[in-house]
Design goal:
The chain is of the alpha/beta class. The chain contains four helices and eight strands. It has two domains: 70 residues, Ubiquitin-like (UB roll) (Roll), CATH 3.10.20.80; 84 residues, Translation initiation factor 3 (IF-3), C-terminal domain (Translation Initiation Factor IF3, 2-Layer Sandwich).
Length: 177
């Protein structure tokens, strides 16, 4: 029930509506002109809340206040929504030992900060014939990280010319941010 879709007062163009008053009680099926008169007498707006019903359901309410409350609820739901935080570390299958340790250190830091990490191995040219080298690099990363730091969300898998795996922080070690 988005506020953009709601028709109010004179824009309701049906013969009769099911009316709900400002106290939430049903008044029954009422001709639209009479419902508009009741709304204006009460100093409220006639708002079509269920246009697909037969006849459409209309409520007597203060439309400005209703819109404000609805926007407030939307903001609250967005606040509670969890955003996916993903970091990506890229490397090649011919990575040096020190470089691998350095990148593993970054992966550990990201995991400790609560990020999910996508570790990607890019294969170029003839490297694609030796996919096992990429798998070995990913396995070495897991060994260097050690148990208890990560949770393996997705095992190493080929995606075109890349091999990747997804890691998330271990649920016991997650930091609250």
């Amino acid at each position: 029930m988005a506020s953009k879709e709601l028709r109010t007062n004179r824009s309701i163009r049906v013969r009769e509506v099911r009316l709900i008053d400002d106290k939430g009680e049903q008044r029954g099926i009422v001709p639209t002109p009479e419902a508009l008169r009741i709304a204006s007498d009460a100093g409220l707006d006639l708002v079509e809340v269920s246009p697909n019903a037969i006849p459409p359901v209309c409520k007597l309410l203060d439309y400005g206040k209703f819109k404000f409350e609805q926007e407030k609820r939307n903001k609250e739901s967005k606040k509670r929504q969890k955003t996916l935080r993903l970091k990506e570390i890229r490397m090649q299958p011919k990575i040096d030992k020190h470089d691998l340790e350095f990148k593993t250190k970054h992966i550990r830091e990201f995991l400790e900060e609560g990020y999910k990490v996508k570790v990607t191995i890019r294969f170029r040219g003839r490297e694609l014939a030796h996919k096992e080298l990429g798998k070995d690099v990913l396995d070495r990363i897991l060994d260097l990280l050690g148990a208890g730091v990560y949770h393996l969300d997705k095992h190493a898998a080929m995606e075109g010319r890349t091999m990747s795996m997804y890691l998330s922080p271990d649920s016991k070690k997650k930091k609250k941010t």
